[in-house]
Amino acid sequence: MFFIASKIFGFFLAPVHVGIFLCVIGAALLYTRWRAWGRALSTLGALALLLMGFTPLGHMLAAPLEARFPEPPRDMPAPDGIIVLGGAADAELSADKNWPVLSEAAERLTTPIALMRKYPDARLVFTGGAATPGSRPEAEAVRRFWREAGVDKGDVLYEDRSRNTLENAVFARERVQPKPGERWLLVTSALHMPRAMGVFRKAGFPAIAFPVDYRTHGDLGRLEFPGGATGALSLVDAAVHEWAGLVAYRLTGKTDALFPAP
Q1: What span, in angstroms and rounded, lies between the C-alpha atoms of 109 and 131?
Q2: CA nearest to 208, candidates 96, 80, 107
Q3: Is 39 in the same domain as 60?
Q4: For the chain, what percent of residues have pLDDT higher than 90?
Q5: Can you tell me the mean pLDDT for 64-79?
Q6: The DUF218 domain covers which part of the protein (predicted)?
Q7: Both 99 and 165 in a single domain?
Q8: C-alpha span between 161 and 34 (Å, rounded)
Q9: How far is 18 from 31, CA to CA, in rounded Å?
């Protein structure tokens, strides 16, 4: 139920979608006796889209999330394992093209290649299933990508049932059975790291944050104006999604802190 509700609310309450809905509803009302409401709603929607697309709003929302967990020192002790969260490969397109198709979060999958070269004795685990019922699990595309890259020689563990961050943590812990004292790196996008760390801690799988896929400098004192509306709108949506996820996961007891910290 939580998964379905999160997808429904996530779609209708995404900031960019809300702005578009306001414009469309407002435009429709212009042809009715509620034209005054139509002008107000369409104006509000247009202003919201302008604010999200051409101001540093996305940076202001994303920077605190990305700065929350710094990268570990490069000279850190070798980890026992590396766990990588899904969200970087398109399983359906990969199957259709017969080749791994990666998303803009590809660093989630390329960074472990370098990490495994540096720490060859570490166990590598990927967790990511099907985004929608009946679709292919992301693990299929990732398996092929890492095999093509020479990382997977048959010793990588793939968890292919999880649909969200909560299930990533729960199912990965079931498969890995981490032992007390083991050091595991958790690789995911910096924007997603606070929620991921909170969920993994709650699930009894403590890990060391290894954030990748940065979209800001992580410095609120250095406001970044977007170079174009497309990227800016995407960043606002992604940041609001994470803030909303932090609130929802805390209210439902899936994390122990509203804004998990190192």
Answers
A1: 18
A2: 80
A3: yes
A4: 87
A5: 94
A6: 80-245
A7: yes
A8: 48
A9: 21
| pTM passes above 0.85 | yes
Q: Are strands 81-85 and 157-159 parallel, antiparallel or unpaired?
A: unpaired
Let me know: does 62 contact 235? Beta carbons within 8 Å.
yes
Please give the helix or strand (H or E) that residue 15 lies within, else none.
Answer: helix 15-29
The range of the structural domain enclosing residue 10 comes to 2-65+226-251
Residue 142 CA to residue 144 CA, distance in Å, equals 5
Whole-number Cα distances in Å, 250 to 44, 155, 253: 31, 35, 5
Q: Which residue has the tokens 């034209």?
A: 35
Strands 81-85 and 123-127: parallel
**In terms of domains, do 138 and 247 share one?**
no
Q: How far apart are CA 238 and CA 119, in angstroms?
A: 32
Instruction: Look at the chain and count its residues.
Output: 262
With H, G, I as helix, E, B as strand and everything else as coil, classify residue 32. Answer: coil
Of 115-119, 129-133, 151-155, 176-180, least confident by mean pLDDT is: 129-133
> Would 165 be classed as within a structural domain?
yes
